[in-house]
Amino acid sequence: MSGCAGSPDVGTHSHSTPPPAGLATVSPSAALTAPATTELRDPAQVASRNGLLRTRIVVEQKKVDLVGRRLWALTYNGQYMPPTLRLKPGDRMEITFENKLDKQTNLHVHGMHVSPAANSDNVLLATEPGKTFRYSYRFPESLEPGTYWYHPHPHTQSAAQTAGGLSGIIVVDGLDKYLPPSLRGITEHVIALKDFQIVGDRIKTQDLKMGAPTTRTVNGQLNPRIRIRPGETQLWRIANIGANIFYKVALPGQKFYVVAQDGYPVNKVYSADSIVIPAGARYDVLVQGGPVGSRELRTLPYNSGKAGNQFPQATLATVESAGEPMTPEPMPTTFGPTDDLAKASVAARKTITYTENAAGTQFFINGKQFDHNRVDFRVKLNTVEEWTIRNDTDEVHSFHVHTNDFQVMSINGKPKTNYGFQDTVDIPPRGTMVIRSRFLDYPGRTVLHCHILNHEDLGMMSVLQIEK
Questions:
Q1: Which helix (DSSP H) or strand (DSSP E) does residue 456 occupy?
Q2: Which of 117, 137, 196, 391 sits at 20 to 30 Å (Cα–Cα) from 51?
Q3: pTM assigned to the model
Q4: What pLDDT is stored for residue 34 in this prediction?
Q5: Distance separating alpha carbons of residues 309 and 321, to the nearest angstrom
Q6: What SS3 class is residue 205?
Q7: Residue 251: which of 214, 297, 216, 285 has the closest Cα?
Q8: Which domains occur in the chain, in start order?
Q9: With 80 as the cut, is the pLDDT of residue 222 above it?
Q10: Which pLDDT belongs to residue 106?
Q11: What residue stretches are annotated with the Plastocyanin-like domain (predicted)?
């Protein structure tokens, strides 16, 4: 991994004294829980103006006020829950990125269709400690509206830095145009799912164990209260922006109506009692207020396989239905345009096989561990390819690819309904997923990987070359 060009720059936050070293192997404290005593706080926003979003991001270790504690965390601009970056299709984004950590880092705009080259979404570059880099993105008019996120992507440190607190939300406006007029301009909330393990007075970053006790937060808050009127419809942007763990999100007695997945509007709205959200995935959902009273937004028990982990039930937030009832609006059925690759001409087929060693300390794609100097897969711009992803392990892995989304054709041989493209999807243990992807607009070197970042950092990532 090569270092980005850039010179030291004066930051907006002073350096802080880091916590003592040598705590990597200490077990984390029990997960924290709390009654709902605070209102949900949506993150602050930095929005584009006249087609440009320009901002500064300073990466540093700081002590922050978090869930009633003072904890050392890795922060963007001194915050555990940094601002939401909000833009429109066709906008440009310029970020002055300053690294005040003692390790290299970089920035990835997860799920976004944008160039992987030069100083755009190029995760094969890194900013060294004490250096500043300037990212410049030019998004296409065809950028899909929905919810995305940003996080670090330096190989071997992605899990540590993301788990330490480095992640935030990106919103691309435009979902409103697909909603019926009566549902335009409704209340919307970011539901950013971030978890952390605590050792002493710090968030644990090294030697992370996925099955260890972890405190789950919404927007960095412990069990916040979400207010809704009976019958009211709200838009929730539910995003798993943590490093490793799964969420199976449910609001018992009520349904989620999915309008976008992974920043891609669905072609048909569908309802779900619960949604399994692997690290990196997002669902934009409509929720209607139930009868007067309180209900828990929960993550339900989830088992990721005999070589994986069993994640317990936990309360995420408390939904308080109160106030003057509203007449429930009918949920939309048809939504975004349909993009279907089922009848596309397939230029090539590839097989991508996930394996791991018995100890779970090394992870492979097609028998190889990640090497940024080696191109593992090549595709041609403006073609469609069909890939078979095999999970030859006894735990769930996710599949994520940068630059272009994909259509899931089948899982374990069972055809999947095409609601729209995605960028982060689970493959069951000993299972197989078939996808199709169209490579549009942007040549360059990019990557594909398991988005359980522990696995990515331990080798489960490949270089993909998109050729003109």
A1: helix 453-457
A2: 117
A3: 0.94
A4: 85
A5: 34
A6: coil
A7: 297
A8: 2-16+27-174 (2.60.40.420), 178-321 (2.60.40.420), 346-467 (2.60.40.420)
A9: yes
A10: 98
A11: 62-173, 211-288, 352-466
